[in-house]
Amino acid sequence: MRRIAGIVLAVLLIGGVVAAVVAGRDSEDKGTATKTVRGVIGSEKAEFFADPKVVKALAAKGYTVRAETSGSWAMEGLDLEGYDFALPSSQAPAAELAAKYKVGGTLPRPFYSPLVVVAHKNAAEVLAGNGLAALDTEHRGVFRMGAYLDAARADRTWQQLKGAGKYGELTGTLYVSSTDPESSNSGALYLAATSYVADGGKVVAGDAEVARTAPLLRKLVSVQGAQQSSTDAAFRDFVSGAGNPLVLVYESQVASLLADGQHPDDLVVLYPDTTVTSDHTVVPLTEDGKTLAGLLSTDEELRKLELRHGFRPQGESAAFTGAAGYLKQELTGVRQAPVPTSEVLHELARRATGGDTA
Which of 126, 201, 220, 264 is most solvent-facing, going by the fewest CB within 10 Å? Predict the structure, then answer.
C-alpha cells in the first residue's frame, strides 16, 4: 500500500498562512478509512507531518492530518472555526489562541526545541577568539549572550574583531539574523532572551522595563534589514552559503539535517548561554484535536519520529546520540530565560520593529 504526503500551495488566509501540508492516503489505498483532522501548524513542523512514516503512524491510529502552515504569532489573526487543532511553536501564542477559542485545561506540549545560533566555521573561530563564544568541539560551542549584546551596543563590526581580517566574507556590522518577531515565534523568543539578558537577568514585565530594553532590541532588529518570516527559509539560505554568517534557528532544524545524513563541515552550532526553549504546544479545538494531541505526546512510534525530525519529546532524557559532535545530548549549562507575557512580548516586538513609543 502506498502512502503519500505532499506539500501543496494553499490560498493565503490572512496573517501568514503560506502552505498546506496534506498528510493523507493514496486513493488506491484500500485499508482502514481514516478520519481527517484539520489544523494550522508552525512551518518548522511541515516536514514532520509530510513524512510518509508519520502519515503511516497516524493512519494506523485512524487519522489523516491536513495542516496549513503559519507564523505562530500570526495564528492569532486567523479564523480557525472548522479546524480541529492549532500547533504554534511556543506556549505564549498557544495561550492566546486557547483564550480566544475558550479552550480550558492544560495545553499539551508534546515536544520542544531550544533556539541555537548556527555559524560558519570561520565566523565561529573569530567569535571564540574575541570572547563572544567558546567552542567545545569543532562543530559545537556556546554563544555568550552578554558579550554579544555589549558588542551590539557598541555597533561592533567584524573588521574590529581580532582575526577577522583574513576572512573576506566577514565584513560589516556583527549581528545575528533572526525572523520577524511580529509574526514568527523564533523572532519573538529571540527578543525574550535578549531582553532578559539586557535587563540584568530579569524578565521584562512592565512599561519601565520595556522602555529600558527597547532601544537595544530595536538595534538588534534594524541592523538586519528585511527579515524572513520563517526559520525554514533562513536555515536553507545559511546551509546554501547565502546570507549572514550567524543565524538564529531551532535546534530541531539542525538535528533533522544531520539525521538526513548531511554533516556540513562548515557548520558550527552555538548554544546561547541564555536562551528560550520553544515548547511546541497543541491547542485542541475539537475532540479529534484533543485525541491527536494525545497521540503526539504518548504514541511511541510518533515520539521516535519526532526525535528523527529533530524535536525533543517531553520526558526524553537524552537525544541525538548520533550527532554528538554538533548537538548537546542534554541541555546542561544553558540558562532558560522566562518568557514575558504575550502583551509585553507583543509590545517588545512592536518597538523592536520600529513601532512608535506612544
Answer: 201
